[in-house]
Every structure is written in C-alpha cells, then in structure tokens.
C-alpha cells in the first residue's frame, strides 16, 4: 500500500503558518483528532475515505509538501511527509518530525521516504493503471560518486505528465530511500522505450550503496 498526492493547481489550499514550529504543532493537534478515522479507513482497506482530510492537513503544514501512507517497518502503518529534498521545505519537515509522537505498534512517522525491504513487491494503482515496481528497468551510468539514471516501465506512457514524473521518481525513492537517492542520483530521465543494458531496482540499490560506501543488500 502506497500512495502519494500533490495538491491540484486549482485546489483551495488552507493557509499555513509561516512559523514552522507552530505549523507542526497545529498539524499534530489535528492529527490526534483524525487518527482514529484514518486507522479505521486503512483497516478497512479504503484509504480514499481520508484522502481529502489528510491532503488538507499536510497542505496546512506547507502546500508544497508530499505525503504517503505506507506499511510500516516496525509499526502497522507509516505516515511519510516529505519536501523531496527541497531546502525551502526542510524547516517544516524538521519541525514536523521533531514534534512527532513516539512510534507505537500502529503508527510510525518519517520525514523522508524510507527504503522498503523489497521494492519489487510494491504495486501502485493509479486509477485503472496498475504498476508493479518489479517491472521497472533502469539504465545507470556512474560518474565519479554520482549516478545518472534512465527509468523505464511499460505503463509510464499511459500516465499524465504529473503521474509520469511521480512514477519516475517514486521507485527510486522506495528503492534507495529518499535521502540516498538525493545524495547519489544526479540526472533522472524517463525512458520512452526500454533501453539496452538495463538493470533491476535491486541491482541499482546494490550499485548505489556500494558507491556510497555502504554494504549492498
């Protein structure tokens, strides 16, 4: 289970407080009111029931932030609120995670997209388009300590421009973790046709972790 959402261009956005600490405090006050409803919706397998409320809540923190609901690593569910490595948004995500409640058996919280154990098992549903991350192929060119990548999936051509951009970066973020992807990936392109010499997402993870001086796996 994973879904991201940016606000639409014509969507009314609630005013966010310019003070990041105050904005984070208001977020968590509202979260504690919503969390029973959110947990119930996820337990019923119907996250769409709370999509609008969560979108408004995150936009109130800052309208340029992106969020996702995921299966947790230690808890049942995880809420990720990220600025996608935009330095303008870092004060808001820093304040948000600093004020977050301790993780428990039900919820954990992340201020960047964490790597999932096996991204090839993740399936993203975008309307009628079903995208299995295991079907992604990547061309990776190493240049010093960074990597340029071209990303291919046969269903990318069926998406809107915004969806295509999201689904080009999302598999990289869930494979590497958003922080490592931001540090080591330089140029990211969407391939229209499957290129030659591609590797899987797991092979990309091993390559980038080795480049970063981390143990592959």
General description of the model:
- The protein is an alpha/beta fold.
- The protein is 36% helix and 22% strand.
- The chain is built from 6 helices and 9 strands.
- It has helices spanning 20-43, 51-61, 90-98, 161-176, 178-184, 201-211, and strands at 2-5, 66-71, 77-82, 107-110, 123-126, 129-132, 137-143, 146-152, 185-190.
- The strands form 3 sheets. A 4-stranded mixed sheet has the order 1-2-3-4. Strands 7-8-9 form a 3-stranded mixed sheet. Strands 5-6 form a two-stranded antiparallel sheet.
- The model is unreliable at 1-13 (pLDDT under 50).
CA gyration radius, whole angstroms: 18 Å
Q: Provide the spatial order of strands within the biggest beta sheet.
A: 1-2-3-4
The string of secondary-structure elements, in order, is EHHEEHEEEEEHHEH
Distance between the termini: 22 Å
Strand content: 15-25%
Question: How would a textbook summarize the main sheet?
Answer: 4 strands, mixed
Helical residue percent band? 25-40%
Report the count of strand segments: 9
- Uncertain runs are 1-13
Inertia-based shape: globular
Mean pLDDT: 87
Query: How many separate helices?
Result: 6
| Class from helix and strand fractions | alpha/beta
Topology overview:
Elements: E1 2-5, H1 20-43, H2 51-61, E2 66-71, E3 77-82, H3 90-98, E4 107-110, E5 123-126, E6 129-132, E7 137-143, E8 146-152, H4 161-176, H5 178-184, E9 185-190, H6 201-211
Parallel strand pairs: 3-4, 8-9
Antiparallel strand pairs: 1-2, 2-3, 5-6, 7-8
Helix pairs in contact: 1-2, 1-3, 4-5, 4-6
